[in-house]
């Protein structure tokens, strides 16, 4: 079974209420793929530790009587199988969250609301194209009307994060040209975000 050489999937603002059966399904599935799983408890949170070879991921759960709630501001997953399993949980258990998937090529950002894909953006550095839940492509730079201002605002925050990350790399490389181009892009994005903010 091949593991991808480079996988990084970031789940942010994740909130999934898992019934016990759903959680057991998930655990069975991971164990059948040779992961070892165990629980770690602290005062408020239960962590499901998922180990494979040299990597350990921990998923934070809040304890409730009927179900456990997977709740995290940000989870970085460096394992394709685990990332896909988590994304399926988001869909099946009607969770909320934003999934950023970096590939060798573009970056994909999918936003889930109650298990439905609310928006999907592909950032390949040049054109930003996104799909909304009925699958039609929106280039939201020209066509902001068909999207909720709140969605556009959230997407712009993600874009700004992404450019900040690129700027940080350019600063580390002392690449003057890139530093300036990222700074210009940030200025533009921030002023656009301010315009969107007026609509909220």
TrEMBL record:
Domain of life: Bacteria
UniProt name for this protein: Uncharacterized protein
């Amino acid at each position: 079974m091949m593991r991808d050489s480079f996988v990084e999937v970031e789940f942010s603002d994740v909130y999934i209420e898992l019934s016990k059966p759903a959680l057991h399904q998930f655990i069975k599935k991971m164990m059948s793929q040779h992961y070892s799983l165990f629980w770690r408890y602290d005062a408020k949170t239960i962590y499901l530790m998922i180990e494979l070879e040299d990597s350990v991921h921990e998923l934070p759960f809040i304890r409730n009587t009927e179900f456990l709630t997977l709740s995290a501001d940000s989870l970085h997953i460096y394992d394709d199988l685990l990332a896909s399993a988590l994304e399926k949980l988001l869909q099946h258990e009607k969770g909320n969250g934003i999934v950023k998937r970096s590939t060798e090529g573009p970056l994909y950002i999918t936003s889930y609301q109650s298990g439905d894909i609310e928006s999907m953006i592909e950032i390949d550095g040049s054109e930003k194209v996104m799909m909304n839940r009925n699958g039609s492509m929106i280039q939201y730079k020209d066509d902001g009307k068909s999207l909720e201002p709140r969605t556009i605002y959230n997407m712009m925050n993600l874009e700004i994060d992404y450019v900040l990350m690129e700027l940080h790399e350019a600063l580390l490389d002392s690449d003057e040209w890139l530093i300036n181009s990222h700074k210009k892009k940030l200025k533009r994005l921030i002023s656009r975000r301010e315009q969107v903010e007026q609509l909220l």
